[in-house]
Amino acid sequence: MRESLLTIPVNEVFEPREGCPICRMRDTVEEHISEYIMGAAMMEPDVRTETNKLGFCVVHYPMLAKQGNRLSLALTLNTHLAAVRGNVFETRNIFASKTKRADKVEHTCFVCSKVDWGINHMLKTVFSLFEKERKFRDIFREQEFFCLPHYHLLMAKSEQLPKNSRAEFMKALNLVVSEYAKVLNYNVSEFCDSFDYRNAGKLHSPEMEHVRTSPQKAVQFLTGRNII
Fold first, then answer.
1. Phi-psi bin for 226: left (phi > 0), alpha (psi -120 to 50), beta?
2. What sections of the chain are H helices per DSSP?
3. Rounded distance, CA 158 to CA 161, Å?
4. Rounded to whole angstroms, how far apart are CA atoms 202 and 188?
5. 40-56 tens-digit pLDDT
6. Ramachandran region of residue 4, left (φ > 0), alpha (ψ -120 to 50) or beta?
7. Alpha carbon distances (Å) from 121 to 26, 30, 126, 128, 157
8. pLDDT digits over 118-138, tens only?
9. What is the CA radius of gyration of the chain?
């Protein structure tokens, strides 16, 4: 498979064949953006204008905090709070009702916007590789799973593929996801059954690792986040 600056990042997230490759893609972009914001970009006027306007979401505030730069985070919060006050609570428009002011409180996030932009550009490379490279098509079919949020994203974005390639892509994607969902559902069901007194102790045997971790894997599959 021919490597380039565009294909290398995509190949890297698909190569492990473990977990959802689009989640790995998102995690990589999120980490880079979080480091960028809490680093040199914090003092860039253009970036601060955007962060003041958009703020961050409940998912990405903790990621920013983990960068360990409390002053940068506080400075960003300070100017964002000032922007919120000015736009929502201290407007001088005498015709602005309480409802209209509430409408201005939007759930936006600077990191989400940049991650969406980055993933959309990387997905163009995914579709190009799938269309042109047989080896990549094989790697795509060998993925462990695609989480449901990214399954829907891939289905929607696959419209940019030619008709024949899109049909092949959708078939491959559906097969990977449906097979994983089937096995996962079975494992979670077995996890539940293990609490029956007749199965006492069964869950703790070494060969039951896939069952013990099935609830966590189910949440990751359904949400695209490893949150339990």
1. beta
2. 7-14, 21-38, 45-54, 60-65, 70-84, 98-103, 110-132, 134-141, 148-157, 163-193, 209-212, 214-223
3. 6
4. 14
5. 888 899 999 999 999 99
6. beta
7. 12, 14, 9, 11, 11
8. 999 999 999 999 999 999 999
9. 22
